[in-house]
Amino acid sequence: MAAAALGLGLLILAAPISTHAQAIQDSRCYLMNGGAVESFFISEDTPVGSVIGTLSVNGDPSEDDGNISLKLQEKDAALGIAPGTKNLTLLRFLDREERLGPSNIYVNVRCDRRRTTDPSFIIPVSVRVWDVNDNAPVWVGSPYRVRLSELTAVGSRVLPALRATDADQPGPHATIHYSVMPGPNSEYFGFANELDSVLIVKQALDYETLSNFTVTLRAQDQGRPPLHNDTTLFVEVLDADDQNPKFTHDHYTALLPDDAVEGTILNTAPGPIAAVDQDVGINAPLYYTVTGDKREMVLVDRETGRVAATRQLLETTAPVTVVIRATQVDNADRYALATLAVSRRSGALSRRPVRFTRRAFTARVPEHAPLGTPLLTLHTEPPADRQSPPFQFYVSDRGFLDKFAINSAGEVLLRRALDYETTPEYYYQVMVTDGIYNDTASINITVLNVNEWEPRFKYPQYEFRVEAAEGAGGLLAVGRLDVFDGDAGDNVTLTLRGSDASMFYINDAGEMFMRQNALSTLNSSVLHVVATAIDSGSPPRQTSVPVIVHVGARLLSRERGGGVLMFAGALALGALVLLALLAVALAYIYRNRRSKSSPSAAPSKSNFVVPEKAPPAGGALGAASSGSLLSVSAGASTILANSTSSLDLRDPAATHSRNATVTRHSARVPKAKVAPAPPEAPSVALMSDHLQRAGGRSGVAWPSATIPARVKKLSWDDGDQGSGEAEVNEATNPAVAEHMNLTVYF
């Protein structure tokens, strides 16, 4: 009876334990990783119907033999669960920009344990969507139309509202580069900076040459592969009053009739005197006048240009030449000149006519030519410098006098400085007259470009951070250096210098990369290099800026794991070398003590002879030190004293004394090795600041000033072509100033 009761009690006690153990072992509907939320990351271009992931839930959801069932709590969700599986499938398009679909998905999956009355489990599921380059840049308000005067200055902004947008997320996919596509007339416009949409005029416009044209503009993002969008810019050039009037002929002749009276109209050749405005779109009206020294000889009709004889002309017998001027009614600064030679039949054949030796005169002049430089000579027949009175020269454009001048010998001189970037070429018509005859020719002056400007960086210092662990082609993107050169046509080449320069690569566009294989040699998280920009001018000019690169802690931790073992191996090797050196030193000390312990030991070839003068006492090498130890100390001191990396501060007299001592020992024992004498205490006056502060320390004496002597301050303002000089800091150490005469530009 007692036994039965005991058995029943044990059965009652065992029942709860078994039930609890079974509850613990039933892990259905729990996540395998022990978490509470399932998270997935997918690209926004994932096709509909794709399996984006599998739920890591315990249990079998198969329809026949499964022990759990899975279904979504939400209706019309963007995700679905394939029947009998744990696979999540995509039911709708995704879009990081949320235009075609959701950018993120959050759903709840209900998990039920089959054949139990246990409550359901809710598993939150989060789906994050990452951006892809699926949107090309879009021009705002395109296509564009602009009306520009032909007098628009080079460098002027074309359209303030010109820009493009990209719907992708901020980053490379939404970073836009602007450019003018190559093609007809593309040379007239360009973007000041490819990252900015400021379109500027790059070449002077001319209504008479080109009044309407189009150019193609491109906006391209930095995705891989990049996407772009092109638009058309329609340009209408407006005529401006930039042309002088022009006579139908440069010079005219007329014969005075024998029966002429005051007011007689003269017949001119090769045709009537007439001029027109060269601004075709304006065609301003003109009026005619007589100018010059002989203006009283004729009368000219203000409207028609017809010429009549005056009383003064009838009274003179010599041929005369007058200058006819055609002036715009609305702009007196726009005019043209022509000559009229009036003669009688008897005097027309008595003089040799003046002529230019050529129809065109050319000169090529560097833009830095000094004022007063003769550019070319207008050679005439007969020569101008042999005439009395001298020939007179007239130029078709009044602007000629702003830059040039012509003397009586026909030399064209420079009056004001030239600038290739402003005006690369000058063209004029010139006329020479001797008072009766005249001739015309052309002048073409080409300005040669000179490398005047140094390249300029946008910022005086660049600082980047590298976090990415992987990059294309073994290169990790670091950043971009923007550089500009004020000389037209110059190309800029970028290079990196410094002890860390080999770890980086920079291309011609200024994009800087870090070599991935350089991570294994890093011993610092901050790297310093100097970027140098060299232009293609002659002679080339260059500018440098410091670049600081911070390497992320994650990259350093990945690469230093293998470096610990190498460092431990190096320490072990160094310990072995130290033990070997210690053994050699102990053997050497033991051998010297043994030789000195015998009073009858005579000098031999294997013994060291100690110099008569002992080193100063102090430290471990005091007066009680043995001879062998003294020899070792003296040898080490002499090695330091004779080292090329230390300063030779020994007193010449003391050195001579020590040499004499060594000579006496050598004479007594010619074949024995002589221990070097200890160095004298150097004079404080001979020591550099470095050695005075660290008394007794031998080493390299660093100069007191190592900063370059000249520092140039740069500006990124394109409109300011000047280069301001910063305060010059001169080195204070004369020795450094003599041997390190360097100039470094930051």
The strand count comes to 44
Q: Sheet bearing the most strands, described?
A: 5 strands, mixed
Q: Return the CATH topology of the domain at 456-561.
A: Immunoglobulin-like
Q: What's the architecture of the domain at 456-561, going by CATH?
A: Sandwich
The first-level CATH class of the domain at 456-561 is given as Mainly Beta
Number of helices: 8
Please state how the strands of the largest beta sheet are arranged side by side: 18-17-24-23-20
Report the span from N to C terminus: 105 Å
Topology of this structure?
Layout: H1 2-25, E1 38-43, E2 51-54, E3 68-72, E4 79-81, E5 87-90, E6 104-113, E7 121-130, E8 138-139, E9 144-149, E10 164-165, E11 176-180, E12 189-191, E13 199-201, E14 212-221, E15 228-238, E16 245-247, E17 251-255, E18 268-269, E19 275-277, E20 286-291, E21 298-300, E22 307-309, H2 311-315, E23 320-328, E24 335-343, E25 355-356, E26 360-366, E27 374-377, E28 380-381, E29 392-395, H3 400-403, E30 404-406, E31 411-414, E32 425-433, E33 438-448, E34 456-457, E35 462-466, E36 475-480, E37 483-484, E38 492-497, E39 504-506, E40 511-515, E41 526-535, E42 542-551, H4 553-597, E43 608-609, H5 627-642, H6 652-668, E44 673-674, H7 689-693, H8 734-739
Parallel strand pairs: 1-7, 9-15, 17-24, 26-33, 35-42, 43-44
Antiparallel strand pairs: 2-5, 3-6, 4-5, 6-7, 8-10, 11-14, 12-13, 14-15, 16-19, 17-18, 20-23, 21-22, 23-24, 25-28, 27-31, 29-32, 30-31, 32-33, 34-37, 36-40, 38-41, 39-40, 41-42
